[in-house]
Design brief:
Structural class: mainly beta
Shape: elongated
Number of helices: 6
Radius of gyration: 36 Å
């Protein structure tokens, strides 16, 4: 008769063997008994999944079969059935429901994202070379992404710099590249006519329109202020009947307030800032000519912070200080001032579309043209070492300048009308009113009647 110790040992061995059998049953049976053509509807071991792959049956694997495999063990998701992949990714916290196919895509369990060479959605749009991609509430989260539109398409992505949603509207054939790799910088490269709309908790409407292919928007933050850098882009801001626009083919930077619009910008040559008011007479445009330099233009608005720059605009008072090389256009988009020297200092204000109290000074004696003033369509006034007036072959019409004084090289210059031509002469400071056609509405009726009578 066996003693108690031997019986106890036999009992333990039986229990251990039973547990091993149960484990094999729970994992689809032993690998030796596993039938690749009839896998159980439960989680499979890595060896069993490998056996199905070797048998060319990877597409028959379901999300349930794959659920115990790590992201490293899964490998390229393209080898599995697309529906199985989408179900599995959903279990792992990745929304890939919009995709119909994958190429070279892998899962990262730690970040709950996917990365890969290509994924195609139901409309044929492709997502290429993406890194750490996921979707949250329909918005894309990604460190890097290249999007190509098969049809007119839209999608949204979260900008981590300002935590705003960016809605993209991409024409058929258009492309968008999003780069979030560098912490604190959000960058997009878009093809022509692509629109980016910022959606924040803000009463304004802000859009970026691509002027050409390879339009580049870079968003960063300094001193808690968000800055937008534009190349081949137009920034459009709209609120309460006011429209502001910054367009630039070269690198220009803009500081933008959700409540107050454009606060300050560094405008590259050929870039412009335009302001369209609900009252059209208060509209204007500031443009940097091709021979200019990067121009700091700042706008003081209501309670907004005051910045310093080459140009300063007091928006509420419609007062302008435009130094250096710069062009100014009136409410009809007609050029009325051109500063052609870095040392120019021009000041004026606008009342109901009329430029008033215009002054220009320059402390550097320089040969050639320093500035041009175009007060009426009939004449072009050129400021230079030797005062000069060029009459243009046009019928006289109403002026948008009704006061002009200058202090170039210590001399005040008077402009006056004589024999239906415009002249200038160095004299004491004098208020100048240009000639206006008798049939047109007169700004200063009494004064002009006297001039017209004299001219007749």
């Amino acid at each position: 008769m066996l003693n108690k110790k031997v019986l106890s040992l036999i009992a333990i061995l039986i229990i251990i063997n039973s547990l091993n059998v149960l484990a094999e049953i729970g994992s689809g049976g032993s690998d030796a008994d596993f039938d690749v053509n009839n896998p159980p509807n439960q989680a499979l071991t890595l060896d069993q999944v490998s056996a199905m792959k070797e048998a060319g049956l990877a597409k028959d694997l379901t999300a349930t079969h794959l659920q115990d495999l790590t992201s490293d063990q899964l490998g390229d998701l393209n080898q599995y059935n697309t529906d199985a992949v989408k179900d599995l990714l959903k279990q792992r916290g990745v929304d890939a429901s919009r995709f119909n196919s994958f190429e070279g895509v892998t899962l990262d369990d730690a970040t709950k994202t996917i990365s890969g060479s290509k994924a195609i959605d139901s409309t044929g749009n492709t997502y290429e070379n993406f890194e750490n991609l996921n979707f949250k509430n329909g918005n894309i989260l990604a460190d890097y992404l290249q999007f190509k539109a098969a049809l007119d398409s839209s999608f949204s992505i979260i900008n981590p710099v300002d935590n705003c949603k960016v809605n993209f509207f991409v024409p058929a054939g258009g492309e968008v590249t999003v780069n979030n790799k560098n912490q604190g910088i959000f960058e997009t490269i878009t093809s022509q006519n692509t629109k980016q709309a910022i959606a924040c908790q803000c009463p304004s409407e802000t859009n970026f329109i691509s002027l050409d292919n390879q339009a580049k928007l870079t968003v960063d933050k300094a001193n808690d202020e968000v800055r937008y850098n534009l190349v081949n882009l137009c920034l459009q801001y709209k609120r309460n009947g006011v429209e502001e626009e910054v367009c630039s083919n070269r690198n220009s930077a803009v500081k933008l307030s959700c409540e107050n619009g454009v606060l300050c910008s560094s405008l590259a040559p050929n870039a412009h800032f335009s302001y369209k008011d609900s009252d059209p007479l208060n509209s204007y445009k500031v443009q940097i000519p091709d021979n200019g330099k990067d121009y700091g233009l700042c706008i003081a608005k209501y309670s907004s912070k005051l910045y310093a720059g080459d140009g300063l605009i007091f928006q509420e008072k419609q007062e302008f200080e435009l130094n250096g090389i710069v062009e100014f256009y009136n409410f009809e988009n007609e050029k009325i001032y051109l500063g052609n020297d870095l040392n120019n200092k021009a000041k004026f204000n606008i009342i109901k579309g009329i430029v008033q109290e215009f002054s220009l000074s320059n402390n550097l004696k320089k040969e050639g043209i320093l500035a041009k003033l175009l007060p009426i369509k009939s004449f072009e006034i050129i400021e230079s070492e030797t005062p000069l007036v060029d009459p243009l072959q046009e019928k006289p019409s109403i002026s948008y300048i009704n006061f002009y004084s200058t202090d170039l090289h210590g001399k005040n210059i008077e402009f006056f009308s004589q024999n239906l031509t415009l002249n200038q002469q160095a004299r004491a400071t004098h208020t100048y009113y240009p000639y206006i056609d008798e049939e047109q509405e007169l700004i200063n009726t009494a004064w002009y009647k006297k001039i017209l009578e004299k001219l007749k």
